[in-house]
Amino acid sequence: MSTDGDSITTPVVRGLLAALSVLGISLAVVVVPALAAQVAGTASSATALDAVLIALNVLVLGHGGGVVLSTGVIDGAVTLTPVGLQILLVLLAALSLRRVGHRLELVRGDGVLRVGALRDAGVSLAAFGGTYAIGLAVLAAIGRSADAAPMVTSAVVSGALVAVGGGLIGLLWSLRREPTTAVPGVRVLELLPAPYGAVARSALLALLGLFGAGMLLVLVLMLTHVPAQSALFDQLDPGIVGGLVLTLLQLALLPLLAVWALVVLLGGTVVVGTSTGISLAEVQTGVLPALPILGALPEPGDLPGAAWALMLVPALAVGLGAVSLVRDVAELERREQITAWIAYPVVVVVAVLLLAGLTTGGIGDGRLVHLGPAMGTLVLPLLGVVVLATGLVLAVLATDLVPWTRRSIASLRERVDAAESAERGEDAGRRGSTDTRGSFGSRGRTGGAAADGTDADGATDQDVADDEHPSDVEDADAWDAWDEGAEDGDDQDEDPDADQDDDARDEDARSAGAADDAAADDADEDPTEPPADEDPLSPRAGR
What is the pTM of this model? Predict the structure, then answer.
């Protein structure tokens, strides 16, 4: 970009042209189906001009403005916004300003904003928003008729909001760059200072999950109420082209019903007319417009208590966003982490309340004067779901609860293992004592040994072992080792008088030895000689 006057003129012109192009596309989006329905509707008395005027009123409603009707059937202001059409208009504005941002070359080749980029972007956005709001006001004024009169003031405000919001998204989108080997990539949310970029990413993830939960509930209701919707469609009998237009209208209302379903899932109440309400507790409906998609609403009556468990679905979406937040701010300082943890639930709650507020409105001054979420019933349940889900995730992932729980479980497991090991050791000791006593008793019974360790012939167990194994020295040593252990075990059971019995046996052995010596001396004497003191004439001597 040069630094002459074109640097200011070019952003202004580009913004103005972008606004005119988006208005033209938006006008075609609503006018073409209206003309097609008028041509195909043979039973209708509306002219092509009537179809165009109706399309202009729908365009104002799609931006979030209001239209005053006086048809005799519906009298009063219509402020219910077809959210699907509004999303489409915001997307068109974003795509247009994205192209403007690329043409203005806001980012240099090295991935850095060029000098004056913010100024040029702001000028183009202002030109786009101003031109768009004025153009929508002109179209709203053109769309006035005897039966319908768009509110010009609301058209200007709603048009400016759509243009500025969508244009800002488009300009930020134009700053995005894919990374290369030489230049780092540029991410829109990363342009925000820490930790607000992480908060924005996590909140966006949570909002997408919440909206998806509401849309899923609507689709389930539509699939389970197909006969009722078919009956309403047959009653209208729109024909082929009319059916196509009716389908487009219902698609424009589908995101609106998804937000209503989300409000119900969060524990709030959706009003569909005077003295009506749809919540997780009960369903009360009255007379509704003959739109086939409204046939998917539940039948009037009380819902079972298990329906409150559906609040876990949005809580899960909020929890997923909180998990993403904890991971994104894990490397930041504690103060920044706390800031992110507080900012995340605040952003989610505010965004949901704004989204629910955009889907409120009314049709006329009759029974349908109040349609959409009852905001008073949504605030407290929403706070509870968001705060509790976020707090639970933070308690598990951002504190020492999980490591402390793991340490406690590991410590308990170690104590249990130690107790089991000690119990097994005691059981093994008791079994060992029992086996030892049993083997000793068996040995005594088998060998016929006495209680003092000798057998019937007066020989000890060691003597018996030696007699049985006179040549096997190694076996004898092993037997001695076993017998010593057995004697050690038996020593505890011996009687204190055992030593006296051993002394008595030793004395008997000495007496027997003396007797043997005397017998040997008698054997050495001559058997024919009588003793010196014996009478030779005695009978013994004669023998």
Answer: 0.73
